[in-house]
Amino acid sequence: MYKVFVNDVPIILSTQENIGSKYTNVPIKRAKIKQLIHKVEQGELLYLNLYHKKEHKLLKHLKKKLKVIKAGGGLVVNPKNEILFIYRNKKWDLPKGKMEKGEMMEETALREVEEETQVEGLEINSFLQITYHIISRNNKYKLKETHWYEMKTSYEGKLIPQQSEGIKKAKWKNFEQTQKALKKSYANIKLLFPQEYLVQHPNDRVG
User: Fold this and answer.
1) Is 173 helix (H, G, I), strand (E, B) or coil?
2) What is the pTM of this model?
3) Per-residue exposure over 14-48, b if at least 16 CB sit within 10 Å of its own CB, e if not
C-alpha cells in the first residue's frame, strides 16, 4: 500500500478492491487520474482507493499518468538531538529539493539540505523512506517522489534560510519544539517521525 498526498489528503494505492465503506474504489488502470485529483483538491472526494491486484504495478500505472519529479531531502539531527526544520508557506518542513541531471539521489539530498539552510558537515546515516505527493505546475498535475535520508552533523554555525526558495526560517528544534512544529507541518513529513513525536501529552491538550 502507498499513500499519495494531495495537500494533506492521502490517495490510497492498494491491492484491495474495497478498503472500507467511506472509500470510492477505482481500478488504477482505468482511473481518470487528473479528474480524481481535482475532486480531492476541491474537497469533493476525501476517501479514494486506487487498486490493482499486483502491488508492483500500482506506482507503475500512476507514473504513466503523471510526470514524475524526483527530489531528495534530509531529517538532520545534531549532537543535542535537535532536528533541522525550515519554515516556508506558513508551514514547518524539512529541507529537500529537486534532483539535478547527473546526480545520485544521496548527492541531491545532501546538496539541497546545505543550500536551503547553509548547514555544513552533513553525513548520511541511513535511508528513511520515499514519500509521494501531487503538485500543480502550470495547471498540470505532477507526482513528486521524495527520497528521505536521516543525516547527522556537528555544525554549530549560523543557519541561513535560502530566501530565493521562499524559506523564511531555518531552525534547530528539540523534542518538544519538534512536536509543536509537526502540528503545523505536512502529512507526508509526519510519516518520517516516530510516533512519540506525534502524540500530545495529556496536559498539553486544549479543552
Assistant:
1) strand
2) 0.92
3) beeeeeeeebebbebeebebeebbebbeeeebebb
